[in-house]
Amino acid sequence: MLEIIVFSTLNGVLYGMLLFLLASGLTVIFSMMGVLNFAHASFYMLGAYFGYQISQFTGFWVGLLVAPVLVGLIGALVERFGLRTVHKWGHVPELLFTFGLAFVIEELVKMVWGKLPVDYQVPAALDFSAFELFGTTYPAFRMFMLLISLAIFIVLLLVMTRSRVGLIIQAALTHPNMVAMLGHNVPKVFMVVFGFGCGLAAIAGVIAGPALVTDPAMAATLGPILFVVVVFGGLGSLPGAFISAMLIGLIQTFAIAINYSLGDALGLVGIGRPVSGALSDLWQVTVAQIGPILPYLMLVLMLIFRPTGLLGTRET
């Protein structure tokens, strides 16, 4: 039992940090631009594929530096020549634009790299065991993913709350005319912010690609849970996204590790299994089976009792 608790906690924290790293870019974009980017997970996928392709020629570390920059530039171009045009028509056209963009990116990835997973390998420098507990080794690359995600969280928090750049960017959202009168190019600020948010998603893709499967379905796999993290934590709240990601990561990981059913729990208090009917099937459902729907149940309850999320302040 202790082994399950320790490794489930490690894996839950790691999964939660990966979710945060992916959600941080979307949170930054929304908090500073008010744009909910449905194509954000697609930029995560582009980061993984760009990292893979660059690593084939120059190695993983160059890909870790170059791929986010390339994806960030693509994101900036999308904002300049796409979102900026539809932004004046409101949020619905923005959502439809990014929704369609996600499908375009997925099809382009299939055309270039195919429909099968690519062989994105863990770098040799991190292909060893970080430590051993209960006779089980823990990969060093997973610890690297955890440290990178934690470092990005700290840097983002400091930039947004303690730096002049963060102050200008947040002011550009709420008082764009005043910021423009102070001599700042507001449209350029928004373009840089959108590109930066896409670059953060690409970093998540580069470091998650070797540990997870890099294929055209990876965006669709993490895309829905990404919005659960952002909305549950509070739209635009970076600390809220962090707390939400950690909660969801730990809950899902522990749920998968627990192979107990409702019947097992009720049996401890003397309640037997029904002979037949729908309740008989419900008795056999394990916690691991309902684990994938728990985050969405949390989201529904949060929207009912606190629509702004854990630390969010926006009503719309």
The biggest beta sheet reads: 2 strands, antiparallel
Strand order of the largest sheet: 1-2
Beta strand count: 2
Q: How far is the N terminus from the C terminus?
A: 44 Å
Features of the shown structure:
mainly alpha
What does this structure look like?
The protein is an all-alpha fold and 316 residues long. It has helices at 2-33, 40-58, 60-86, 91-113, 140-162, 164-174, 176-181, 186-208, 218-233, 238-257, 262-267, 278-284, 287-290, 294-305, and strands at 129-133, 136-139. It has a two-stranded antiparallel sheet. β1 (129-133) and β2 form a beta hairpin. α1 packs antiparallel against α8, α2 packs parallel to α4 and α2 crosses α8. The longest helix has 32 residues, at 2-33. The protein is globular. The mean pLDDT is 81.
Summarize the structure.
With 316 residues, this protein is mostly helical. Helices cover 72% and strands 3% of the residues.
